[in-house]
Every structure is written in structure tokens, then in C-alpha cells.
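User: Show me sequence and structure for the first protein, then do the same for the second.

Assistant: Starting with the first protein.
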Amino acid sequence: MAAPYIKGLWIRSPRFTIDPGEDTATNPGRYGKQLAEWLREKLVEKGYDPEPVIAEDWGWCVMCARETNLLWVGCGNVDENGSVEATNPPRGADIVWHCFVTVERPLFRGWFKKLDIWLADRLYTHVQEILTADPLIQLVEEP
């Protein structure tokens, strides 16, 4: 599946840590479960009905819609030094987190339908509002 729309935000925050063994559900050194679960709850408050968070090989996914398009937010950590040591993961505010909004067509469905980019733009705006409203979260430049 190609994802023609991906728009992201990068943050630092002491609010989110890495759960012990969290990367056994993803790939070694891939984190973001606490961020994804927190963001999921905030999206419910905004009127979304997201599924429980899903582990992916790159981090964690908050699936917001599956109807005609897949609309979701990815949450994961950024490797600032080019590698992550699973045995010694970074802590709290030392982690740069990446939240990215994606809309894509489900495999084998909707080939001739347009992507609902406006839904993705709206979701991105809500994610940005959620992140900037929390005083414990600092937006940072893309590493």
C-alpha cells in the first residue's frame, strides 16, 4: 500500500517513557506505546472512535478509520544517533517522538476513489492541537 499523505510532528516530553519489554511487540529499539495510548484517549475526547493501539514493526499505530480509506496516526521514537540500543533505551525527555498522520487506500479496495485528504488534514490539526495543549510536551524540529 502506498501512502501518498504523511504529515508529522516531532516532540520531547517527560510524560512518555518506554515500558519494559515494549519492543518485543515491535522491532528491537522501536517504542511509542505510551504515547499512542495517551493520544488515542485524547482523540476519543475529540470525537474519534479509534481502535486499541496496534503494534507495528516501526512503533505503534492509532487506527482512526477503516471505511473507504485507512486513517491513522503512527507513534514512534526517532533514532537521533542512527541506532537504538534495545538493551539501553533512552529515557523520558531524552527521547524524540514522532507522530505522523497517514491516509491510504486499503489493499484491493478503492483503487478508483480519491483519498480523503481533508480527513487527514483535520486529524493532523487535532493531533497538533492535542500535543501543543499539553504543557509537558515540547514540539521540536525534525531531527
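Switching to the second protein now.
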Amino acid sequence: MSVKQVIVIRTRYPDGKGGFFKPRTGKLIAQGAHASMKVFFDRMEDSGDGCKELGPQEGWDWQGAVLPWIEGTFTKICVGVDSEGAFKAIAPVAKDAGLPVAGIQDNGLTEFHGVKTWTALAIGPAEADDIDKITGHLKLL
């Protein structure tokens, strides 16, 4: 079994002047890291003692994918899309397939001039073949 997480990064954004720009590489990396972690944060539940823990939720294949991923090499693949439309089309397909998904909407405080902007999406950890059906056509970063 091959398990991985795919992080989809938007690489091109409207500049507000009719053109486009690419954010700094560090910004793109940070957004991808946020998405990767958010998959886990979104699945934390109250443990009853004021603490949080990862809970058994629908679509969270703990024994089959998550634990082997955490205990293994926790493979991450980064791919890119050029448009918000292409970006927004991916999450519903992954969710419909029962895969863990988490998106990041930047608050716009640095690169995006006060405009909240969708920047990164993590899918998985899950079976590589299941994720590839959704993201296999996207270009590696």
C-alpha cells in the first residue's frame, strides 16, 4: 500500500490591475504547510478533559492510511494550479471520494492586499491511487 498527501498550491493570482502575479516562494510554502497541518487540526475533537485529540471521523482511515503515513515517510507531493476556478474544482471531488481535505484561505495581510484568497489545499493522507484519480493530471511544483 502506498499512502501520501497531495498539496495543491495556487501559483498565479490576479494583481488587481488586469494582470497576474506569483507570490514569494516562502509564502507558497507556508500556505502548503498550513493546509497539510489543517487536515489534522480539522479532525481534532474534545477529549472531555479540556484537551483535543484526533478522533475517529467519517472519511478518516486511521489504521489503513493515516497511521502508516505518520509512522512511515509521510510522503507529500506538491502540485500547482493557475486559477481559482481550477483550485475550487478539486476539493468537492476529493470530498465526494471520501478523502480527507483541508483548504487554506489567506487573510490577505501581506501578499493579497487585504483580500481573502484561497491559496492551498491538502488531500490525504490516503491511498495514493485514490488521490491520483483526482490530482494525477496536475503539474508537479
